[in-house]
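hi! just following up on the protien thing from before. the input was this:
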Amino acid sequence: MAIRTEGLTKRFRSGQVAVDGIDLRVPRGSVYGFLGPNGSGKTTTIRMLLGLIGPSSGQAWLLGEPMPAAGPAVLPRVGALIEGPAFHPSLSGRANLVRLDACDASAPPHRNARIDHALERVGLGAAALKRYRQYSLGMKQRLGLAAALLRPRELLVLDEPTNGLDPQGTREVRRLVGELAEAGTTVLVSSHLLAEIENVCTHVGIMSAGALVLQGERTSLTSLADRRVWVRTESEHVAGAARVLTALGLDEVIIEGAELHALLADVRTDDVTRALVAADIPVHGLSERTPTLEDVFVRLTGEGFDVAR
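and the predicted 3d structure came back as:
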């Protein structure tokens, strides 16, 4: 495992339990989406993993080594972008990276080439000489990502990497994560914006109120939610359509205006279409919708990802 925790817990002096006994399992070579609403405990967990704060109880291992005890040996193999990266405001983006890299005695040679390559990878090549204080929020986030890429990493931990980025920047981050994974780097990506990174992840862990409510391979987790069929008809026929779906054995039939949807279970969509046509119900649209991770989350917690804690 690239990351493993056992009963990792963080309790603050106020009595608040920010992280409640979680057992993370991040396989080597995976892209692990660490997901959940703002305030669900993701950043606190990451800070404990990297040794920035100590746990109240439990243990954590990075790349097979215990943290924080093995931090000096392990952390040079780990790149990290933690929420709100800080740099010297009067220096340019490039100068900040030079200064940061110079502090690392174990950094590989060819510093200038590595820094230029990192800046280009995150789309800051043209703004490399611009002062950090003049950077937008998205540019600051890109520079933090460049800092994490200054040297080859076995593990990359990205906390809200798309924060402040426009849609194009978000797509670039997804592409970069995919490239890193293909090169053999394990990537943990934390986000409260599930839809932005859901499709790039091979594995997922979902947090809610400090607890890890779901974890596993992404494709297997979505099978926990049932498939639904959506039918669009005319307002005067929606009640008749609902009766047809009920007669077919579909459960949880829900009407929303001129649309209705229901759990498919073992019924095929072709059978639904034929039954509606046979009952003279006009069908203006019919589709089967595969459940998303957010569907699974809502089913488990009763809340959406926009819930602030």
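The CA atoms of residues 2 and 63 lie 4 Å apart.
The longest strand covers residues 3-11.
cheers
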